[in-house]
């Protein structure tokens, strides 16, 4: 019966595999909870004949355990919940010893697993590959009948008349489930070994057995991979390395082997403890140690705020440059695939200067207007950098060694450095960034990173958020690269369920396009936890590395979480470190405390009181962790505060009531081009979470195709908003509840029926028909035959504008589904016999500039 305790390790491990999406979307709450309950059931059977003496004084532990259940969130509090349940059962039904012991044992295992998962989250993103094992695997493969060799850390396998390169990673070896099983086995050996020397020998032997098992399991899985012809999409077969069921059953033989080698004989549990000095030191040291270790992991130096002087390096920018103006004259992909809007927006809050090389004066781009640079220099020097607080470097060209030294010196003396890269070492930008980033322990990978199933990654802010993401509840990625940093770094965005594929330099974008269906390209990937933004404190300064430059482009910068990230980074970098060694201090103190616990416990004969001591340590430790979390957690918000927007040239799109305007996660926004084009008239667009927020941040509020009714209170506030000197633009295509707002301003809508004989020719080249929803009242601004589609009303100090053919401003061409084109569109790409794209663009500019009283006050040009 007692051997069931060994078998309980499988479902207790399954809980984490089912509940946490390290290798992709988790199986869900129900399978996870069923797994942990099955683990509890096996534990109960294992303790069925165990003698146990309980002391009711232990019920006091309900207080710290219960408090910790609320501070530590799901799924990491499941172990604590099981322990609380165990103590309650021991109180209400003390004779059911096997039941409360089973709950307690499972709870202890899950609590320790949760602690080691936190350590794994820190360790794993920076330590995927175990290249030195490739030689051992190559050697062992000969004994399994596999034709393989190793080179440069890869295991090359010849099979099915091709050579397949296998990366040797912790994920392929199964390190994640193994460490959970190993922790449980250590707990069982600790409880069942009466002699410390025997316990130490067993631990060493389990480690050696495990290493051998991990290697052999890897080779067996490779044999399974080639056991039949590969499917057309070979990556489907790699599921055997990461599927939770494969992982579980793959480690069942190891558990059975340990059960056979180290059977549990007699277990006696005694909760009668007599307080003495040794126990007091153990409990105190455990409390202090876990508090310090947790603090070392989550403490974030608030820093001393600087002046906010930003220098943008345009000497080296070869992609995402910000020196060409996004205006009404320059169109096409290059006009929106640059960082002009981001830099202009930052200049509203900070002091932003651009530095260019002398050759900039010779730059000529047809249709584009150059900005007037703030500084011209052949190189970056410390004499230049020392006058600034933040340096922004994005997708750069090569730096010479003196420039790198100047940048490092700048950071060491309190400067902030924002490094922005992209996927697959595109145009060599990863190599050039690594010249600098490696001096701070950061490496940009030469790969492309998306979710494990190849979709764009959608980040959702989770527990223990970094300072940088405090304004950012989510972020849409557009494909970046992996980031590897030192253990002392701060993981700002840790991607779960990620996959990294090496680049292919024969393709234009360095993606795997020419050999996309080559099965040999399915085995050299990396999966699991991958850093997507890291920060490092260096001397008095700070560094942030981010690998996806696309999201700072003009066509992405103001939605999808991009502006929230940029402001978070600027606020983080605009601070000089004040507690430079705080985390190191916490870590060393925690290490000393942990060593003290281990030393005294090693000198103490714990006898049958091992579980009792473990429960007390667990309760005190959970309380100390909860205290650290409460003390050092960052307060978060769901949007950027108003002070980062210049209200007079901000247009707020009401995201609460409008239909989906811009894309989010897997949902496609209908009015993205219209949204982006507001930047061409020097407006800063934003998507607000509520109409109240929209009115607070912008002088213009736009509501498009409202799908949610307007409450009476908010309507009164909207009327006051206009009366105070602001403007509302309402764009609709059909009548609805929002007609009441228009009626308040004296505008009525009605339908003009489509005649039997229609004429497809549109007035002034606009794709607007003479039939549809029309306006009566106000000042008529645009009429197609007898149909008024645009009208304005001056109200108080402000203005209300109604447009009743919103669908013409949807993305798309020729009415599929709209007429505005896309961010890469140019007016010349549309046949003017159908409609004139430039006329439609000019209609938007007319509404924004002439009607809403927004003047173009862009930077000086030459």
Keywords:
862 residues, alpha/beta, Rossmann fold, nine-stranded mixed beta sheet, seven-stranded mixed beta sheet, 26 helices, 31 strands, 18% strand
Describe how the helices and strands are arranged.
Blueprint: H1 4-7, H2 9-19, H3 29-46, E1 51-53, H4 62-71, H5 78-92, H6 97-123, H7 133-141, E2 148-151, E3 154-159, E4 162-167, H8 170-173, H9 175-192, H10 196-225, H11 239-242, H12 244-261, E5 268-270, H13 277-298, E6 304-305, E7 309-313, H14 333-336, H15 340-346, E8 351-356, E9 375-376, H16 382-385, E10 390-394, H17 401-412, E11 416-420, H18 429-437, E12 442-444, E13 447-451, E14 458-460, E15 474-476, E16 483-485, E17 490-502, E18 526-538, E19 541-546, H19 562-573, E20 575-576, H20 582-603, H21 610-632, E21 650-654, H22 672-677, E22 684-688, H23 691-697, E23 700-704, H24 712-723, E24 727-731, H25 739-744, E25 748-752, E26 772-776, E27 779-784, E28 787-795, E29 798-803, E30 812-813, E31 816-817, H26 837-851
Parallel strand pairs: 1-5, 7-8, 7-10, 8-9, 10-11, 11-19, 21-22, 21-23, 23-24, 24-29
Antiparallel strand pairs: 2-3, 3-4, 6-20, 12-16, 13-17, 14-15, 17-18, 18-19, 25-26, 27-28, 28-29, 30-31
Helix pairs in contact: 2-3, 2-9, 2-12, 3-6, 4-5, 4-21, 5-6, 6-9, 6-21, 7-10, 9-10, 9-12, 13-20, 13-21
Folded structure, characterized:
The chain is an alpha/beta fold. Among the domains are: 87 residues; 273 residues, Rossmann fold (3-Layer(aba) Sandwich), CATH 3.40.50; 207 residues, Rossmann fold, CATH 3.40.50. It is 38% helix and 18% strand. It has a nine-stranded mixed sheet, sandwiched between helices. Strand 30 and strand 31 form a beta hairpin. It is globular and about 95 Å long. The C terminus is likely disordered.
């Amino acid at each position: 019966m007692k051997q069931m305790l060994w078998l309980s390790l499988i479902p207790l491990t399954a809980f984490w595999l089912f509940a946490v999406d390290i290798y992709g979307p988790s199986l869900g709450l129900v399978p996870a909870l069923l797994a942990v309950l099955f683990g509890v059931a096996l534990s109960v059977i294992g303790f069925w004949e165990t003698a146990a003496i309980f002391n009711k004084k232990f019920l006091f532990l309900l207080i710290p355990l219960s408090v910790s259940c609320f501070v530590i969130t799901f799924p990491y509090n499941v172990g604590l919940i099981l322990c609380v349940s165990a103590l309650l059962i021991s109180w209400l039904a003390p004779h059911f010893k096997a039941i409360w012991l089973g709950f307690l044992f499972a709870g202890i295992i899950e609590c320790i697993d949760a602690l080691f998962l936190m350590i794994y989250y820190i360790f794993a993103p920076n330590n995927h590959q175990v290249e030195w094992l490739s030689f051992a695997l190559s050697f062992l493969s000969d004994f399994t009948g596999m034709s393989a060799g190793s080179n440069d850390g890869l295991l090359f396998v010849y099979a099915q008349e091709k050579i397949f390169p296998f990366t040797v990673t912790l994920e392929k070896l199964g390190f994640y489930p193994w460490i959970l099983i190993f922790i449980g086995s250590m707990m069982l050996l600790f409880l069942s070994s009466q002699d410390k020397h025997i316990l130490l020998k067993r631990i060493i032997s389990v480690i050696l057995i495990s290493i051998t098992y991990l290697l052999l399991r890897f080779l067996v899985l490779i044999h399974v991979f080639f056991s039949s012809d590969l499917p057309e999409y070979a990556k489907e077969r790699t599921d055997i390395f990461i599927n939770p069921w494969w992982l579980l059953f793959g480690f069942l033989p190891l558990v059975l082997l340990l059960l056979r080698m180290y059977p549990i004989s007699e277990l006696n549990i005694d909760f009668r403890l007599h307080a003495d000095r040794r126990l007091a030191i153990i409990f105190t040291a455990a409390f202090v140690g876990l508090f310090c270790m947790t603090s070392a992991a989550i403490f974030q130096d608030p820093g001393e705020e600087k002046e906010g002087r930003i220098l943008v390096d345009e000497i080296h920018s070869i992609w995402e440059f910000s020196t060409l103006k996004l205006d009404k004259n320059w169109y096409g992909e290059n006009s929106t695939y640059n960082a002009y809007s981001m830099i202009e927006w930052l200049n509203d809050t900070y002091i932003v200067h651009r530095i260019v090389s002398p050759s900039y004066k010779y730059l000529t781009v047809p249709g584009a207007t150059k900005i007037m640079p703030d500084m011209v220099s052949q190189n970056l020097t410390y004499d230049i950098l020392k006058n600034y607080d933040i340096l922004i470097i994005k997708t750069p060209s090569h730096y010479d060694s003196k420039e790198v030294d100047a940048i490092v010196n700048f950071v060491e003396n309190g400067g902030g450095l924002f490094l922005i890269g992209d996927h697959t070492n595109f145009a060599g930008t990863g190599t050039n960034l690594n010249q600098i980033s490696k001096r701070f322990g950061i490496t940009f990978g030469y790969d492309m990173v998306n979710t494990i199933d190849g979709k764009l990654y959608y980040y959702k802010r989770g527990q223990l958020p970094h300072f940088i993401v405090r304004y950012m509840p989510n972020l849409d990625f557009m494909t970046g690269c992996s980031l590897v940093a030192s253990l002392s770094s701060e993981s700002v965005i840790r991607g779960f369920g990620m996959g990294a594929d090496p680049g292919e330099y024969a393709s234009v974008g360095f993606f795997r396009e020419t050999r996309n269906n080559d099965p040999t390209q399915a085995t050299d990937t990396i999966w699991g936890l991958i850093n997507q933004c890291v920060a490092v404190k260096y001397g008095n300064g700070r560094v942030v590395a981010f690998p996806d430059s696309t999201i700072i482009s003009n066509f992405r910068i103001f939605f999808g979480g991009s502006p929230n990230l940029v402001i978070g980074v600027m606020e983080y970098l605009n601070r000089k470190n004040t507690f430079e060694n705080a985390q190191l201090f916490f870590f060393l103190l925690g290490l000393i405390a942990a060593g003290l616990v281990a030393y005294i416990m090693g000198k103490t004969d714990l006898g049958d009181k091992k579980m009792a001591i473990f429960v007390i340590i667990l309760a005190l430790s959970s309380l100390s962790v909860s205290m650290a979390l409460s003390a050092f957690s960052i307060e978060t918000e769901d949007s950027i505060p108003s002070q980062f927007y210049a209200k007079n040239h901000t247009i707020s799109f009401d995201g609460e009531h409008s239909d989906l305007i811009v894309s989010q996660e897997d949902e496609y926004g209908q009015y993205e081009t219209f949204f982006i084009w507001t930047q061409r008239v020097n407006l800063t667009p934003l998507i607000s979470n509520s109409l109240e927020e929209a009115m607070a941040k912008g002088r213009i509020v736009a509501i498009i195709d409202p799908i949610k009714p307007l409450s009476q209170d908010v309507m009164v506030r909207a009327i006051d908003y206009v009366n105070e000197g602001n403007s509302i633009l309402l764009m609709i295509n059909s009548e609805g509840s929002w007609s009441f707002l228009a009626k308040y301003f004296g505008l009525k809508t009605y339908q003009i029926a489509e005649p039997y004989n229609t004429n497809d020719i549109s007035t002034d080249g606009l794709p607007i028909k003479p039939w549809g929803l029309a306006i009566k009242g106000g000042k008529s601004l645009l009429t197609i035959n007898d149909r008024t589609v645009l009208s304005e009303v001056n109200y108080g100090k402000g203005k209300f504008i109604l447009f009743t053919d919103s669908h013409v401003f949807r993305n798309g061409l020729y009415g599929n589904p709209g007429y505005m084109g896309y961010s890469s569109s140019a007016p010349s790409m549309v046949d003017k016999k159908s409609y004139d794209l430039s006329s439609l663009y000019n209609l938007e500019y007319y509404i924004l500039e002439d009607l809403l009283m927004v003047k173009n006050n862009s930077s000086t040009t030459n």
